[in-house]
Design a protein that fits this description.
It contains 13 helices and 12 strands. By secondary structure, the protein is of the alpha/beta class. Pfam families: Aldo_ket_red.
Length: 324
């Protein structure tokens, strides 16, 4: 089964819940974006406000993960309380376990495990919350050495989930995302592809997976873009470095915010089915959605390529972002 996300989510902007499902994350600006007291109830209220605003503005794709604290719980409760939202595509991910125990400062915030045992445990947990509302289940943060690409017994499990009507996908991370995507395209069970979607980091700073994403799209995979604002580095007050000049200039030329321009550049890629907003406030979400009305010229898109960094440099800088 494969998702036709452009038909399901014509706005092509989705909402990811990583920033509001747990008190600590690596997005910039959390001290001012989130409530002073980040209790479970306070973040639930924020998550509900974001999902309500997203749905009202046409967003029809919601993304969570087992490791996003209580994100799946918030999503399940929101869906239960909004019976009119039956047209939402619901995605979650397995492969990381949240270990920070609701702290912003922890030695380890999440632990990766792509084993069959981890899958069996986490798919049961996700199903207990989301039931038959789950449309897409992704292996979280796959890299070329992940057993998710080589474990044939796991592939059989994932193929069974597909038979149950859930699209199986994977998200990628690290400087070798393109290698991961191409390896995933060759994974089959009984001659049928296992992965029907790929969710990848792609933005004005990190463009290395673009060619592989085009190949995945041509092969019939749904393509979801995450971290399109580089964990906040391409948004608002954080666009200050001299090398970001082209982004600031084009924002002035179009009358749009920097985040809207950065997202519009990703939406301009013909292979991008859904681009995720990781907004932590309703104002940020509205600004992100405004990207759908920003039309960049070919010359402006070319100027924005100046911001691209080598993949290794980008991921090294990302790894230094503090959980806050």
């Amino acid at each position: 089964m494969s998702l036709t996300l452009r038909a399901a989510s014509p706005l092509r902007i989705g909402l990811g819940l990583a920033a509001v499902g747990r008190p600590g994350y690596i997005t910039l600006g959390r001290d001012t974006d989130l409530p002073a007291v980040r209790s479970a109830e306070a973040l639930k209220e924020r998550a509900f406000a974001l999902m309500d605003a997203a749905y009202a503005q046409g967003v029809r794709y919601l993304d969570a993960a087992r490791s996003y604290g209580l994100a799946e719980t918030y999503l399940a409760e929101w869906l239960e309380s909004r019976p009119d939202a039956k047209d939402v595509v619901v995605s979650s991910k397995w492969g990381y376990t949240y270990t920070a125990d609701w702290r912003t400062q922890a030695d380890v915030h999440e632990v990766k495990d792509h084993s069959i045992d981890a899958y069996d445990r986490q798919v049961a947990e996700t199903r207990a919350l989301l039931g038959d509302r789950l449309n897409l289940y992704q292996v979280h943060s796959v890299t070329p050495d992940s057993p998710a690409l080589s474990d044939t017994a796991l592939h059989e499990r994932l193929a069974q989930l597909t038979e149950e009507g859930v699209t199986v996908g994977l998200s990628t991370s690290g400087p070798r995302q393109a290698d991961t995507i191409r390896a995933a395209l060759s994974v089959t069970v009984s001659g049928r592809p296992v992965f029907g979607s790929v969710q990848t980091t792609y933005n004005l700073l990190e463009r290395s997976a673009g060619g592989a994403l085009a190949e995945a799209h041509d092969a019939g995979c749904a393509v979801i873009v995450k971290e399109a604002l580089a964990n906040g580095r391409l948004a608002g007050p954080h666009v200050v470095a001299a090398e970001m000049g082209a982004l600031r200039e084009i924002a002035q030329e179009t009358g749009a915010s920097c985040d809207a321009v950065a997202l519009a550049a990703v939406l301009a890629q013909p292979w991008a089915d859904v681009v995720l907003s990781g907004a932590a406030t309703v104002d940020q979400l509205t600004s992100n959605i405004a990207a759908t009305h920003v039309h960049l010229s070919s010359a402006q898109l070319e100027r924005l390529t100046e911001l691209a960094q080598p993949a290794e440099a980008y991921w090294a800088q990302r790894s230094r972002l503090a959980w806050a």
